[in-house]
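debug: dumping io for the single-chain case to check the tokenizer round-trip. Nothing else runs in this session.
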Amino acid sequence: MSLPTNPLGTLTQRASAHYDDRPSGEQISLLVIHNISLPAGKFATDPQTSYVDALFCGTLDPAAHPSFADLAGLRVAAHCVIWRDGQIFQYVPFAKRAWHAGVSYFAGRERCNDFSIGIELEGTDNIPYTEQQYSSLLALTRHLLQQYPAITLDRIVGHCDIAPGRKTDPGAVFDWQRYKQALKENKA
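debug: decoded output
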């Protein structure tokens, strides 16, 4: 299955088996922003050989770092990761259900994976994201808003919003005002 391109050019396609079909007739209507770094606070110099890439591709060696013990056997992937340099890797086709949200709910509905797209930013809750990441995230979001009109500005949330008490990402350093304002300006 080939993956689409984004407005920035071709997405780097990576093979993940951590997805399945969405429920029949399910409309994509939510965008979830996450963050990830492995080990925590360490960023990739080469995304294709990073621990995050290995996790999403199902090849992470849990013995590679002491903090990975809890990740043994974990089957998880977001649709895309935006690396610190702005590169975008796509792990799951947007039309498919990526396993990114876990136990979650939004607007009275559980199982957000059924109706959402998950975008990971390489980062942590307390280290500012890069200009390149914001630029790539905005371009990708604009593309998704065009492709999936049920995703509206009020249906773009953080992982913390759909899994409160369990998740905190994308963290207090994510500039929601800047991001949403740039999206509003694009609609005008």
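debug: round-trip ok. The two ends are 35 Å apart (CA to CA).
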